[in-house]
Amino acid sequence: MSKLKLLMVCMVAAMGGLLFGYDWVVIGGAKPFYEPYFGLADAAKAWESGFAMSSAVLGCIGGAIGLGWFPDRFGRKPSLLLAAVFFTISALWTAFATGYWSFIAARILGGIGIGLASNVSPVYIAEVSPAELRGRLVSLNQFTIVIGIILAQLVNYIVFQKAVPEISWRVMFGAETVPAALFLVLAFFIPESPRWRVSDQKGAPVVREDRPVAGTSRPLFALLALGVFLAAFQQWCGINVVFNYAEEIFKAAGYDVSGVMFNQVITGIVNCVFTVFAMCLVDKWGRRPLMLLGAGGLAVLYAILGTCYFFEVKGVAVLVVVMAAIACYAMTLAPITWVVLSELFPDRVRGTAMSVAVAALWISCFGLTLTFKPINVAFGAAGTFGLYSAICVAGFLVVARFLRETKGRELE
Questions:
Q1: Are 298 and 237 in contact (CB under 8 A)?
Q2: Which residues of 374-409 are buried (b: 16+ CB within 10 A; e: fewer)?
Q3: Which residues make beta-bridge pairs with 212?
Q4: One domain, residues 292 and 406
Q5: H helices within 332-407, ranges in order?
Q6: Is there a domain that residue 203 lies in?
Q7: Does 6 reside within a domain?
């Protein structure tokens, strides 16, 4: 393919990331509207409200595990098409849901689409890209995730300004139908992965093999263990803690509800800009230095945030550190983890092994969401950030010890 055609093909595959980002964030803006509609605003309905927020994560885990075999058996292109179908149906179903359990089922279906797309999109892009461009092209997936997040934040902000409680949440969810349907149409026109086409073990259950992988001295199990750790670390590095605290931080800085939502859009733009920096650096600096920079940088920034909370420092100073943490994550761990995972495994099991790592990512995400409040209650804000600083130190040590550089090397 020419470079232009290659870029277009990769952008189509990366639309799975865009829908992933949109679907993941839109529910936050819709929450104040759908909760009264389904009678979840009462404190007695806290569990039902929490399940509505987290049900998509269960779908993500199901999509990664239950359909993990699909890309290696039937190909990358059919997997992208299937994910697009799930996204389209989920968007329409959620927008027209009339009951709580119908809403939950639609969210789970969308989560299955996220789980499948987050597995297949980076693998497909890695397999069609030349070695010298692979890092930045795989990073397109993270870039489109960020674009999806910004789109969701913009839609939430615009709809919030003209709020009509009965239909606002339906508009927020229904707007996803447009990019989902576009993804479904465009995915028909991209080629199948050439590496999958030449594979002679489609769907073979070879993840259990423990012999050294060609070109390395490490058995497949060791690579899989490293992939699972990196996927889990991307979630447990603590950036979701920052996002959970964002509303509180903005309010402490003197912003009203509308201002908080606007600042969340600014946060998304910061995320986007520094993801572009990552795309420019990944094939120059390499994967390992950026992973080390992310783990070390976040460890320092969380230590500063924990100190600020310990001494009750709030306002603009904390806001600046939060933005720095988001920028650090966006430039390093957010996109580079996907690049490393797409390169880590041999051709014969890449789709299946990737699904195991992605399942670990979503299980970790669910665990983080589930334990955040108990940890915060037990240790307070200062202790919480201190804990995640320590996790980042551990991640730094593992990356320094076990992750080898893959920049410029052919996948084989």
A1: yes
A2: eebeeeebbebbbbbbebbbebbeebeeebeebbee
A3: 219
A4: yes
A5: 333-344, 350-402
A6: no
A7: yes
Q: Average of pLDDT values for 296-302?
A: 96
Query: Looking at the structure, do residues 87 and 5 belong to the same domain, yes or no?
Result: yes
What are the phi and psi torsion angles at 212 (to 5°)? -60, 140
3-state class (DSSP) for residue 212: strand
Residue 106, judged by CB atoms within 10 A of its CB (0-12, 13-18, 19+), counts as buried
DSSP 97: -
SS3 letters for 67-95? CCCHHHHHCHHHHHHHHHHHHHHHHHHHH
Q: Which long-range contacts link 254-257 to residues 24+ away (Cβ below 8 Å)?
A: 254/315
CA nearest neighbour of 338 among 326, 329, 327: 329
User: What are 171-186's pLDDT values in tens digits?
Assistant: 999 999 999 999 999 9
Contact 125, 10 (CB under 8 A): yes
Residue 406 near residue 227 (C-beta atoms within 8 A): no
- Cα 138 to its chain centre, rounded Å, is 13
Same-domain pairing of 139 and 279: no
Q: Which domain holds residue 67?
A: 1-192
Q: Distance between CA 275 and CA 142 in Å, rounded?
A: 7
Q: Say if residues 260 and 254 touch (Cβ distance below 8 Å).
A: no
Query: How many whole angstroms separate alpha carbon 145 and alpha carbon 19?
Result: 7
Which residues are CB-contacts of 137 (< 8 A; sequence separation ≥ 6)? Answer: 6, 7, 10, 125, 126, 129
In angstroms, the Cα distances linking 154 to 172, 173, 330 are 10, 13, 19
Q: pTM of this prediction?
A: 0.83
Are residues 149 and 253 located together in one domain of the fold?
no
Same domain, 145 and 217: no
Q: State the Cα–Cα distance between residues 33 and 164, nearest whole angstrom.
A: 9
Q: How do residues 317-342 score in pLDDT, each as one tens digit?
A: 887 888 899 999 999 999 999 999 99
Cβ atoms of 389 and 307 closer than 8 Å:
no
Q: How much is the average pLDDT of 69-95?
A: 93
Assess whether 51 and 106 both reside in one domain: yes
Hey, which residues does 219 pair with through a beta bridge? 212
| Cα of 286 vs its chain's centroid, Å | 21
Alpha-carbon span 121 to 67, nearest angstrom: 14
Q: How many CB atoms lie within 10 A of CB 42?
A: 11
DSSP state of 193: P
Q: Is 61 helix (H, G, I), strand (E, B) or coil?
A: helix
